[in-house]
Amino acid sequence: MPETSEPHPEGEQPRSIRLTDPRALRAYAHPLRMTLVGLLRSSGPFTATKAAELTGESVASCSYHLRILAKYGLVEEAPGGKGREKPWRATARYTEWPEYSEDATVAEAADALTVAVAERYFERVTRAMERRHTLPREWREAEQFGDSLLYLTPEELTGLGERMDALLRPFEGRESDPSLMPEGARAVSILRIAHLEQDVPHHREAE
């Protein structure tokens, strides 16, 4: 079974949950389930009825998918309510899964989940680009869109990721503690994708 977080007191939430069970990995790859977990992390707790309003899906469908997510430890019942009116909450702020596994079944399910998440990322980026003309000037100028081609070793790339984590970590507490949020702060999605360019030569050719 996947690693699951212990029940947590109201207002407290583990940083991440790690999925290692192929069944959990495949279950989470469903677009609506990823949407529900994301909404619970940003706007929860809420009921299946509220989930239906937020997603445009039926209450029955949202209720079913929330139960599947609960089976694998990604969401849990929150205090209060009953039946379809019981609220749900996310069990952690982030989801993690193996980048590599000797188990072919785990590796296949993890890679499929990564592809599903990447597709979701770029759908969101496309929507953001389509709507950015409505943003105030300061947000349009602050947004970032670009790429870099670097020659790195695996160890250097790992270290770069750790340094990025360290830069972002101080801002994470604002979501759960609004008192830490300065005036004018809004939700910003920061994507971090670093992949090997297999079509680029290992070494630059001499000029």
From TrEMBL:
Q: Which domain of life is it from?
A: Bacteria
**Which is an annotated Pfam family here?**
HTH_20
**What SUPFAM superfamilies does the entry give?**
Winged helix' DNA-binding domain
Taking the record's annotation, the residue ranges forming a coiled coil are: none
Point out the signal peptide segment: none
Protein's UniProt name: Helix-turn-helix domain-containing protein
Organism expressing this protein natively: Streptomyces narbonensis
